[in-house]
Structure formats: C-alpha cells, structure tokens
Amino acid sequence: MSSPFPQPSVGTDTPEIGQVHVQRRRSWLLWLILGGVAPIILLCSGVLAIGIWFQVQRSAAARAVQAEVDRIHAAGEPITSADLHAYHRVPDGVADSTALWLTALRSFNEEKFNADYQAIAWFDSRGEAPLTEAEQKSAQAFLAQYQATIDATLAAARAGGECRLPVKFEDGIAALLPDAQRMRTLVRIQALRARLAADKGDTDQAIESIEAIFAASRAMGHQLTLVEHLVHVATSGVGYAELEYLLNRQQLTDQQLAQLQTAVASLDPHSGLTDGMLGERGMGYHTFHLLDVNQLASGNVQPPQPRGKGTLWRPADCQFYLEMMAEAIDASREPFPASLDRVNRIDAKMKSVMASANPLERMNMMTTSLIMPAMSAAFTASARAEAQRNLSLLMIAARRQQLAAGTLPSRQDELVPQFLPATLFDPYDGLPLRVVVDPDGLRLYSSGRNRVDDLGSDAESPRLEPDIVARLRNQPGPLEANAPSPDGAEPSEASQADGTMPPDVTDPMR
C-alpha cells in the first residue's frame, strides 16, 4: 500500500534546501565584493580628500602670493620681469652715463685681454711691494695696448651721473651677466695704472685711476642682482687697496686728499645691497613661473623653458620664498650691525625649514631651497665694503691732520669735526673703528667677519679670523719689497689689488 506522502528521491535536495544553498552562495559573493571593493572605495575617498585638501591649500597659497604681489606693487617696488625693466632705469633729472660705460666695456676683446694679461700676472699677488724696473716696463707696455680702454673708462668716470647695465630679467635666475665680469677687467687695468703712477711719483695720474675705480664701482651700485652687487663691493675693495698704497708711497697735498675723501664718501655698499635683493626677489618670482623644479634640481636652466602661460606651478613654495625675501629686504634697509643680526636669524629660519623631519614640508619648499640667494654672504660682504670705506676715510683724515699739525692722531676723536664730520663706526660690532699707534705709524682696523676684536691682527690661523686692517706709515716714502707687516703677518686682506673677491665674498647664485 503506497504512502499518502511523497517520498524524496535519494541524493536530491528539496526546493527549500536548494534555495538555502543559493542564498549562501549569494551571501559569500556579496561579502567577497564588499571585501574587495570597500577598501578601494575608502582608498579613493582618501585620495580624493587629500586632493581636495591640497587644492584648498594651493588656492590659499595662490591667494597669499597674489596679496604679496599687490603689496609689493603698492610699495612701488618691482616683482615681475616687466617691473624690473621699468625699475632698472636712471631717474629723471640724473645724468645717464650708461652709454659711456658700455663703450668702455665693449672696447676690448676679453679673450685677447686674458691672454695678454699673462705677461703681467705677477701683479695679482704683488701686495704692498713696489714694482721693479722690469715690472714697470712690462706694465707700461701692457697699458699701451689698452690705451683706448683706459681713455673710454676715464671718460665714463668723468661724466658722473648713474649707470644701468642691461640685464635680461625675463630669463629669471638663468640671466647672464657678462658686463659684470668685464667691469672687473676695467678695474684691473686702472689698478695697474694707479700702482705704476704711484711708484713713478705721478700722484695726479694715480688719483685719476683710483677715482676711475671708484666710479666703476658706483656704476655697478644700482644693479638688480646680488652677483653684480658683489662685483660692486669687490671693485671698490681694489680701489681702497690702491688708495692705501698711494697714501703710504707718496706725499699728497691737502687738496688731493680732500678730493679722494669726496670720492670715497660717495660709495654706498648698503643701498646697493637693497637694490640687489629687490632684483633677486623679482627674478626668483619670475622663475616660479618659468622653470620646473626638475630643471632646477638638475642645474639645467639654460635656456629657460616656460611652463604654460605664466602659470604659478608651486604657489606654497613661492609664498615661502616671498616671505623670506621680504624679511631679507627689510633687513637690508637696517644699519649694520643690526642688519647682520637680522639676516642671520632669517638664514637660521630657512635652514630649519629645509632640515625639517617632515619630508612633505621639505618637498613643498624645494624650489626655494634651490634658488634662494646666499643672503648671509651678501650681507657680510657689504659690511666688509663699508668697513673698508670707513677705514679709507679714516686714513685720509689722519693724513690730512698730519699735514696740518705735523703728527698723526692717536685717537679717532682728534679728527672730528675738522677732518671727519662724525665718528666712523665698525659695521660688524657697531663700535668706533679702532686706532692703534705702532712704532712706524697707525694700525686702523675693524673686527671683521667673526665680529671679535683680535687686536688688529690680520694673520690667518686656525684660532683667529683676521681683522680688517689698514696701515698708515708715519711718513710716505719708499717701501721695502715684500716687506712683512709689523706683527709678522702677510699684507692685510684690505690690500688685495688683483680684482678677485675678498675671502668672505661668495657668489649668491651658487
């Protein structure tokens, strides 16, 4: 008899059991999909959030950059390449001697000059030693070859006024500065001419060449790059060295001394520092629109490759750069030594950011780290030039008193106000320049780069950085060839006459 209930087939599932299996498979597939897709969704969401955050930061930085640009324009200062060209001109009402200086700069072939100069290369290390008879003949022959350059330089120097040598600001930090090196060449020629004239007793010609050196330095005094500013201070240093040599070699009249005093007083290395900083800021800002960070890091900046149509690619980086440069420009307007103190703090801040443990922060400021000029070196070089200028004024005033009273002064205050309008200070420490009476004359000095009074020692040693020293003999007269300094040191740093940068002057673009 059959059962009234249907019997399940052996080895088969009922419909209910089959549905359960299907549901389980669907559940596993759902969890599998969720397990694989969810992390991707979360990752994409995180990336999107980071992208939005970066975009917000980028937009905020771009607005900050524009606000700073607006502030700079409101202050009447240059920031774009067009601004720099407009700013870099001789003011109305001032004689423009640019054409005369360019004539002098183009009056010689640089390659030929370098070859010819080998015949008198001994002059670069001559120091205080007078020229021998053979050296005088060699110098005369060399100078005769470059009489046209000498005449063109003297014509530009006599014209006075101001000069603005051309610069392609649109090339940013890649701009070439050939005229700066050529100006150094003009100064080397005049330095040799001044030395030869001093040894032969032709004081008028020696003074003429020294004044031409100072005029060439002034011609660089309004340029808008720090490299040109460093040439400005280095060339003035050559003039100070030849002035010191002349004061110790020949007796000058009070009229001649007053003439030299006026020429030295006209030099202002501090204002040139500010002009150089303004130009560097503008050229750096232009570079943020011109070059990418990979080009800068590789050093491949010639020729510059524009990116987009004036697009600011790294606004946060540019914002930091403009902040640092604004602080440095403000510092450049302060008197020494406060200016040195402030730029050292700025430099420390910059180094702190670049040494950050946060790699993202370092990466954000990468372009700034590559194009920021060596500010501390530029400020120190400017302070050195101011110290040399003040020491030169002090030497001239001391010699003028000697003519009037028969003896050199023992203190600086003896010269005020008859021969100096006011006390001359050391730009490194703010104290009056030191005067030391030696058996053979005066030792005048500044504390120098380490800002420590080393008692007027200009000797290099592991323990000491030399002071900046100028010496004035009791009476002008014949010098002993290669005579050592009274303390056994080599000739002072202030007496470099080869046209090279002083030891603490570095290229700010390196």
Helix fraction? 55-70%
The H-and-E topology, N to C, reads as HHHHHHHHHHHHHHHHHEEE
* Mean pLDDT figure: 83
Shape: elongated
How are the strands ordered across the major sheet? 1-2-3
According to DSSP, the number of beta strands is: 3
Biggest sheet details: 3 strands, antiparallel
**Terminal CA distance:** 110 Å
Number of domains: 1
SS class: mainly alpha
Q: What percentage of amino acids are in beta strands?
A: under 5%
Q: Show unreliable segments.
A: 481-510
Cα Rg = 34 Å
Total helices: the number is: 17
What's the quick description here?
With 510 residues, this protein is mainly α.
Provide a descriptive summary of the structure in words.
The chain is mainly alpha-helical and 510 residues long. Strand 1 and strand 2 form a beta hairpin. The chain is built from 17 helices and 3 strands. The C terminus is likely disordered. The chain is elongated.
Please specify the SSE layout and strand pairing:
Elements: H1 15-74, H2 81-87, H3 98-105, H4 110-117, H5 133-145, H6 147-159, H7 178-200, H8 203-219, H9 226-249, H10 254-265, H11 269-290, H12 293-298, H13 315-332, H14 338-354, H15 359-364, H16 366-371, H17 375-405, E1 434-438, E2 441-446, E3 468-473
Antiparallel strand pairs: 1-2, 2-3
Helix pairs in contact: 1-13, 3-6, 5-7, 6-8, 7-8, 7-9, 8-9, 8-10, 9-11, 9-17, 10-17, 11-13, 13-14, 14-17
